[in-house]
Amino acid sequence: MENNSSNLTEGSIGRRLITFAIPYLIANFVQALYGAVDMAVVGWFANSAGISAVSVGSQVMQIVTSMVSGLTMGGTILIAQYFGAKLEKDTKETISTMLTMFAAAGVGFTAVMFLCAPWVLSLLQTPPEAFEQALSYVRIASCGILFIFGYNAISAMLRGLGDSKSPLLFISIACLTNIALDLLMVGGMGMGPAGAALATILSQAVSMCLAILYLTRRDFIFDFKLQSFHMYKDKALKLLKIGLPVSLQESMVSVSFLFIAAIVNSLGVITSAAVGIAGKFTNFAMLPATAFSGAISALTAQNMGAGQPDRAKKSLLIAISMALGCGFLFFLWVQLAPQSVLHIFKADPQVTAAGIAYMRTFSIDYLLVAFVFCMNGFFNGCGRTVFSMANGLFSTLMVRVPLAYFLSRYIPGSLSGIGLAAPLASSTSLIFGLIYLKMGRWKQFQVE
């Protein structure tokens, strides 16, 4: 499998970014289909309470996914730095440590989420008519946390080695499985949100198992044998040093969405369903920026490891321009035909009206995240994850959440105020990011 790795320190920057980011983008697009398919199928075969249950339940599970993706980003960055510096032994030890840590963490997270689900849903002011269905969704989905850890860890190490194509293969098979099981369990068997959750965890299991089988049959750097799982203390500490700030930032951003969900849920099941549907579309709209952020992290880490900071900075500017172009298309769609988005999910007229008001203001963020996400990816690749975390937490917890609460009261009867909080928070993050980039501290780099 080593022949699938890619040296991102040579060749055309634009070509490297595109060839790395496109499979990453498609993989993220396919992964986002999980939640969207769950929402759509439940919308087709259930009612607004079912949609609300999947909306709230998936937001709860997103906290775990955000934690995992943040930690795995630490693995991608560290592996890419070692790979760029041509330190093969350190690369192998990092992979072994990451997989071992995540196997243990997956079991622990499963127990915590299963037990805490009722309390979390109550804290979120889940609409009473959707509570039991949301509880079933979260508890069933929690049983698949180990698979979430496994798939993300494997994908992270491959991307650190410059391979973004293999993760796309694994997640594509999982998504097709998820769609088939959704139609069977939700549509055919009438299991509602519980069936959607069960379909998701089974498809995640398929994805992880196929990934392991695929890699063990190739000349990959890690053989997945039990005796090969070992935790190296120095690598564990470095993974946590880089990954924990990213994980904390990602998870707290998800928590902020839960605070906003609580504000929205308190307004009733119609608004809950409307924001839930808009959120699924937003996941797709922000995929280009997310993909280029991941690509720039790996490319920057390899180039900084190879002692090429100027090439790393140039790649940031190219990534921003590409992500901005994609984000503008989604922004234009929402501004010109927002009702078409709501109709994909079979939203009734009341849900559609509420969703349009929310999406028109929120969609401004589709443009701003092109800058914010790519800059965060660049700083993370430089090992400056603490700054990215601090900047992200400030804009999210000190700007977005308070503004969402205030504007929901200042503009009563409409979700446009809550939607406006996101672009205002991103603007704050962008300003601090530009200042930090100008300061040049990111250049003070050494391989961890």
- What's the total number of strands? 0
Query: Beta fraction of the residues?
Result: under 5%
Assembly category: single chain
**Helix percent band:** over 70%
Please give the domain count: 1
Rough shape? globular
The number of helical runs is: 16
Return Rg in Å. Answer: 21 Å
- Kindly name the structural category: mainly alpha
The largest sheet, given as strand count, sense and whether it forms a barrel, is: none
Mean pLDDT: 80
Distance between the termini: 25 Å
Organism: uncultured Anaerotruncus sp
Function: Multidrug efflux pump.
Protein name: Probable multidrug resistance protein NorM
Pfam family, one: MatE
SSE blueprint:
Blueprint lengths: L12 H33 L2 H37 L3 H36 L4 H15 L2 H16 L4 H24 L3 H25 L16 H33 L3 H17 L1 H19 L3 H28 L1 H7 L4 H14 L2 H17 L3 H26 L5 H24 L9
Helix pairs in contact: 1-2, 1-6, 1-7, 1-9, 1-10, 2-3, 2-4, 2-5, 2-8, 2-9, 2-10, 3-4, 3-5, 3-8, 4-7, 5-7, 6-7, 8-15, 9-13, 10-11, 10-14, 11-12, 11-14, 12-13, 13-16, 14-15, 14-16, 15-16
